[in-house]
Amino acid sequence: MKTLRRILRYVKKNIWLMVLSMILAVGASVSALFIPILIGNAIDSIADVVGKTNGNEPVWIIIREALVKTGILVCVSALCQQLMSMLNNKVTYRVVGDIRKEAFDKIQKLPLKYLDAHPAGGIVSNMISDVEQFADGLLLGFSQLFTGVITIVGTLILMLSINVRVALLVLVLTPMSFGVARFISKHTYDMFKLQSETRGEQTTLIDEVIGNEKVVKSFCHEDESIEKFDEINARLKDCSLKAVFYSSLTNPCTRFVNALVYAVVALAGGFSVINGALTVGMLSTLLCYANQYTKPFNEITGVITELQNALACADRIFAFLDEDIEKDSKVLDDANNKEDEKNIQGHVIIKDVDFSYDPERPLIEDLNLEVKPGQNVAIVGPTGCGKTTLINLLMRFYDINDGEIVIDGKEIRSMRRHELRSRFGMVLQDTWIKEGTVLENIMIGKEGASREEAIEAAKKVHAHSFIKRLPKGYDTVLDEEGGGLSTGQKQLLCIARVMLMQPPMLILDEATSNIDTRTELMISRAFNKLMENRTSFVVAHRLSTIKNADIILVMKDGHIIEQGDHASLLAKGGFYKQLYMSQYANI
After folding, report:
1. Residue where one domain finishes, among candidates 481, 502, 523
2. Does the pLDDT value for residue 453 go beyond 70?
3. Is residue 43 one of the residues assigned to a domain?
4. CATH number for 190
5. Considering the chain, what is the average pLDDT of its residues?
């Protein structure tokens, strides 16, 4: 019910369309309900003619009038049904569109710790498969629920007006239909929910294997991948079969109830005709109503089955939408923001900082550092020592557990994330290319930049030559995989974005790891020019690239164990010298 109420909040935005749909549902149902009365009256009139009680009117005239009136009502009912379906489609896909938009907006606001902890395939399954299943159930519910309820109520009222005793017999059998519906819905919900979760797990595996196909083949991991897929697929088959089994009980169970109600009406009505309490036409009308009365129970039970699937999917969608988002503790007014942008110096103070991804596994403890404006800071150390974590904390991808980080006199948690991140230009080891032209990919770095500025940035990072060799140069369209570009070429485009930004501060996390040595030397010169008078943080494994850094921080187990320039650290003969010599021992 909680999920259903939440769905109705989305539907309320289209309340007038729903009201119109309900009016059309009433029109369709009422039109259909009058058809059995016309048929019953026609039968009685024919019986009267045959029995010579009303022999003034030919039989064919009576039949013609009944057929004309029935045809008009059928057309009215069909038109109302068609218009109602169109409105329900519109409402359903507006609701689905709102949910998908909200889900996509949610992704932009989720903290990185959520995205790191949840597989991308599961999130994709949430936004695509679950929303699609939810739409199907919602559409079926809108289309059949209103008309079903109106038909049941209307049929019962008309049956009571014809013969109270027969109508009460039908009413007594009604709980059997509700019992069937309850049994089916109770057993299908859990199965459909498990099916939805397992489908998400399968999507995650497929996404993982396709995205890393080269690694799978390189390590001959095909058999293990197939084995894991088969295991998930077997579980999906099991829960899907159970869900289908329980939902397939709908038709035979409700048909049994339908047949029972029809038999009771036929038997009781037949005795009433013999006793003179009913005419043959009235019995015909009651039998038509018996079918009409039980048919909606069949449809509604089917709707309930689909709704169980839809609600199970909606649960997963809403659980995703309810995840905590990144929140700014303080929002500065626009005047202060503009003033701050003019006075960015890049003075960074890290004081008594503690942080861990897992509370039971400490990573960074009691970290202290001061970086003066314009200094170039290199961060080195073994894998897992906290280099990239320090970058994550500076950018507030993760918030520190204790201590404070101050930039230009302002604690970063008192700044808007957008304001903080706009101060940095960042190049990562992992490249990201969006679907669009080469020019559009470079201009991500600076909104409103001109084509000439983007080309100049590409020239500075030595990407211009390979871009000109592409089929359409800067207008070549790339897909998210890079459109045939090498890893190094994609990284050059990412570096060009930052070069175009001309940011106040720089973060380079293994920015030249996928680039050949000659190009790396040329880009290093461009970076050196870019880093002039800018505070820069450079994470590097190749120590030759950071010899000219003002400060080299040597990290180990979340602590800064050494700091100084290249010459002083080598002279010290400590851990940095060990790292340096391990790279150049054989040279």
Report:
1. 502
2. yes
3. yes
4. 1.20.1560.10
5. 80
Would you state the structure tokens that stand for residue 425, as one six-digit string?
A: 């230009």
Residue 397 resides in a domain:
no
Q: Is residue 286 part of a domain?
A: yes
Cα angle vertex 395, ends 393, 400, to 5°?
25
**How many residues does this entry show for the chain?**
587
**Are 56 and 177 found together in one domain?**
yes
Supply the pTM of this predicted model: 0.63
Do 317 and 435 share a domain, yes or no?
A: no
Whether 370 contacts 405, CB under 8 Å: no
Residues 76 and 225 grouped into a single domain: yes
Portion of the chain with pLDDT greater than 90, in percent: 2
User: What's the total number of domains in the chain?
Assistant: 2
Residue 201 has pLDDT above 80, yes or no: yes
At 231 the pLDDT is 92
Burial class (CB in 10 A: 0-12, 13-18, 19+), 136: middle
Instruction: Please check whether residue 149 lies inside any domain of the structure.
Output: yes
CA dist 249 → 259, 302, 327 (Å): 16, 10, 48
> Which CATH number covers residue 495?
3.40.50.300
Whether the Cβ atoms of residue 511 and residue 540 lie closer than 8 Å to each other? no
Give the residue from 485, 502, 519 where a domain finishes: 502
Strand 402-407 relative to strand 410-411: parallel, antiparallel, unpaired? antiparallel
> Which amino acid, 55?
G
pLDDT band for 79, please (50, 70, 90 cuts).
Answer: very high
Q: Do residues 94 and 13 lie in contact, with contact meaning Cβ atoms separated by under 8 Å?
A: yes
Do 286 and 139 fall within a single domain?
yes
Q: What is the pLDDT of residues 115-146, one digit of tens each?
A: 877 777 778 777 887 887 777 777 667 667 77
User: Is 426 a residue whose pLDDT tops 80?
Assistant: yes
Domain that holds residue 99: 2-321
Q: Determine the pLDDT at residue 330.
A: 47
Determine the residue type at 300: I
Instruction: Return the pLDDT at 230.
Output: 92
Q: State how far the Cα of 284 lies from the Cα of 385, in Å rounded to an integer.
A: 85
Compute the average pLDDT of residues 195-212. Answer: 82
**Which conformational region is residue 108 in: left (phi greater than 0), alpha (psi within -120 to 50 degrees), or beta?**
alpha
- Report the distance separating Cα 29 and Cα 147, nearest Å: 6
Mean local confidence (pLDDT), 533-551:
80
Where do the H-state alpha helices sit in 322-398?
A: 334-342, 387-394
CB 489 within 8 A of CB 466: yes
Which residue has 């949430």 as its token pair? Answer: 126
